[in-house]
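Protocol step 4 of 5: obtain the predicted structure for the target chain.
Materials: sequence only (see below). No template structures provided, no constraints applied. The aim of this step is simply to have a reference model before the mutagenesis design in step 5. Sequence pasted as it appears in the construct record:
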Amino acid sequence: MKNKFYSYFFKEFIHYFTIILFTLTAIVWTVQAVNFLDLVTEEGHGFLTYFNFSILNTPKILTKLIPFTFLIAIILTILKLEKDNELIILWTSGLNKIKIVNLIVRISLVIMVFQLLMASAISPFSSNLSRNLIKNSKFQFFPSLLKQKNFNDAVENLTIFVENKNPDGSIDNIFIRDENRVFKDASKSSTIIAESGKLDMSDDQNFLILYKGFIQKEESDGTINIINFDKTILNLSELTSKSIIAQKIQETSSLILLECLFANNSKIFNFSLDNYLPNCTRTKKNLQDVKVELNRRLIMPFYIPLIAMIGCFLLSSRKEKANSGIYKYIYFFIGFSFLLFAELSVRYSGVVSYYSIIYYLIPLIIIPITYLMLFSFFKLENMKS
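Step 4 output (structure tokens):
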């Protein structure tokens, strides 16, 4: 009977956990996907790049939501069994409540390992793939360069202004400022002004054709040359957007971060920091950021067993007590407070050493204390072993 109940409890938990996790993930992913539209409308990336970038950010969302989802799922599972009087049947049949606590703790350990895997390996790897996707993506949505009455600087060192865009695709009064040889045939810098033009996108090549204007070029020796033209063609095919392409700490392998934190001019993991984390200098600020990221990945999951034990207090018999329904809100608030504390304190765990120590000791100390409280609490209810 116990094994059947354990299996049933686990299935109910997984049911709630999966539905809540994917529902919350879908909501957050949709909001982020809307924000990522700037990759197309402002930075000129293609829709396929935008979609793949959004998908690759899903593990990061899952990692953020797993602890909160676990708290809700474990509480809903216990409340569901209590509402259906299934727990009362188990108690009257002699099943010790501490065994249910042990089951919930084992489930929390499984989720903790899953969270560790997501936070320390899968999420950084996926985030790094998304960054490389942007890094290797060429400028594709060229119409975003030509916004009417707007100085567009989606391409680094290049500014384009268009006064009018006509229904037939032609454009009027174009201003282009090339600050640093964005176009290969440019000098040190150049300014282009044209009366009209059009965008030609064919055969996997993209050209901006300009009519009746002049090019003002600044040469390396400081001289200015002015060239008039009736027609000139600018090749846009090799343009790249100014999206951030440098690898961030959140996108870096945990092994690389460990080397950055502990290695002192040595390669304990045989990696090159210059290739994997160029900004990993031995400055106080960088080391703090690395420590915070490692704490978030490796220590945050240990708060999951803690909130599991907090939820276990819902197993006590309270139906006969007044205001028994308020307990679910109390324990949810306590569990949520620990998660909020973990999220806020991890941001300061790299600033001062004793902040880190407190962050580490909270789950290490409170978990055994909470378990002893549960053991004593349920023992007083005179349950059978």
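Step 4 remarks: The beta strands are 158-165, 170-178, 189-202, 205-218, 224-235. The chain has two domains: 2-136+247-379, 142-235.
Proceed to step 5.
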